[in-house]
């Protein structure tokens, strides 16, 4: 039996969106994954590191899933619900979880870590990252690129400027902080939203796609999009991702 619009909205608007686990969308939305395999590459680097820092770790899902963590592993997060989740996942693995603000300064001394990582950071604090890296240390990150999921943003919010997340600008910022970029790749990836509940859940969780989103605020557009999906099939969008790896000169790489 096909679920009604009201049922889909009620469910998606009340389910928890804590953490960075998207399994609730299984069967309801899909997104292609970048060809480079961030988690696999991260696992290799973590296995070789002595001291690692993961910035904006979310609920700790990525780190907790790695087979090996360095002897010293620290993760930062600012959102209280995610802090609790991250602690529950990472403390049993011997990692430290540190509450942090959403702006610099990083609460660590200089030249402490030989590996700093971040998956989908809201903002990259290049100067601070360079400061806490040991000479020869590496910053490794998968980031949201320009115009990511722009189709949804334009539908709900109107045309926007997504160019600030351009990988070329990231290279310039890294080099300005004294780091050497050794790898930079980007891809655009197909997404499908198969019901309006998937759209609502996604926008509640990934809050920068449509700033200020709520069901009440966009109820007319949600109803129209529901009718469109019912008539024409999944709503198609495209995410944008780039991988960047930068090294602090000097010393020996981890």
UniProtKB/TrEMBL annotation:
Example GO molecular function: S-adenosylmethionine-dependent methyltransferase activity
Pfam families assigned: Methyltransf_11 (PF08241)
InterPro entries: 23S_rRNA_MeTrnsfrase_RlmA (IPR052939), Methyltransf_11 (IPR013216), SAM-dependent_MTases_sf (IPR029063)
Keywords assigned by UniProt, alphabetized: Methyltransferase, Transferase
Location of the Methyltransferase type domain: 53-140
One BP term from GO: methylation
Protein name: Methyltransferase domain-containing protein
